[in-house]
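Assess this one:

_____
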Amino acid sequence: MNTFDDFKIKKQLLNAIADLGFEKPTPIQLESYSTILGGSDFVGIAQTGTGKTIAYLLPILQDLTYSDQAQPRVLILAPTRELVVQIVEQIEKLSSYLSVRVLGVYGGTNNMNSQKQAIAKGLDIIVGTPTRLYDLALTNVLRLKSIKKLIIDEVDIMLDFGYKTQLKNLFEHLPVKRQNILFSATMTTYVDELIDGFLINPVKKTISISGTPLENIRQESFCVHNFYTKVNLLNHLLKDKNEYNKVLIFVAGKLSADLLYETLNFKSETSVIHANKTDNHRSNSIEKFVNGTSRILIATDVIARGIDIDNISFVISFDTPSYPENYIHRIGRTGRAEQQGSAILFYTEKEKAQKIAIESLMNYTIPFKEFPEEVEINPQLSPEEKPKLLDEDDSAHKKSLIEVGAAFHEKSAKNSKEKTERISYKRKLKEKYKKPLRRGDKIQNLKKKKR
């Protein structure tokens, strides 16, 4: 059996690992350690919850020697502020017996002054979102030419969020000679393009295919009529506080998240987190969920890979995700560190095709459960479920076209009898400045006229 002692890492790191309670390395940690430590470019493809963060932090901290230089030597990019905070916390825990200066930066704050001041004090590792890091690089307070190692965490979701341009801009500020390390849960076309674009003969390690269902997660599904019936079913399930003691609920968007929070019976035990919430609100919501103040956390897919919380008893997909890969990332929040977890999928008839796509990706049929008879079916539709009506102006316009006849169409401006008179630029100038009273300078003529 492999242990962390086999890595031959320094004693300070071993002590920190022991404090964290890690007994043996995961497969991705075994595959990546020696390659990253050796300095080669590396691409790691592994499912969420398999210890990817530790996989790149261990060799980086092992190789990082003491220095008092001002500018950072390691740059870690993450797609969300939650993941930035999580990575920084992990670095601080692993470096508890080391002298390592680390800072996390992300947008949403009123200004960057505090972040600039922290950078000016000197750093070894900087972790941040692409947009904020690029903004700091433009101020010249953060100089990235000293970067020796670049790590991009959750590459696929980074590209899904539209960070391709920001990444390209950041690369222009980085030195050409550097080690590149990429970690992702899926291998997409965009990820392939990124690898081909700036990695040099990278070592690729795929630990498990993204679509493979996690064996330690029990899955089940309910076919539900609509939004408000889903709410009724959710209230019915959440009454069992012993079994549903720490529940993460994923919804399709921000509006659904807020509406679910307002209609849930357990409002006092629930927190909400999505992109429209302030930094403080998001941090407080996660903190309450972690420490048990909140039993339930409602979230959008924006943080599906941005939080790492232990002992989540259930992950409930209130809405079936449009992209089947997102379902894998959702359920990966439970059953972490080889513990047992549970996941429930709610789907409507309209979402049935999305459920089939998920099952096709996983090559696994999610067990179906009959809808409980004691749960009321509510026919009321949510605002997003209601059919979209045409604006009155649009309907009136279409009606007028129908009344005139199918062959009728408006004439173009150039064919209409009521043509707008065109005035040349030269004529406009003449009308604006008029003709001088006598020959010579126009300004002098105006002065004579005033006399």
Notes: Confidence is low (pLDDT under 50) at residues 395-408. The longest strand covers residues 217-223. The two ends are 106 Å apart (CA to CA). Residues 336 and 418 are 73 Å apart (CA to CA).
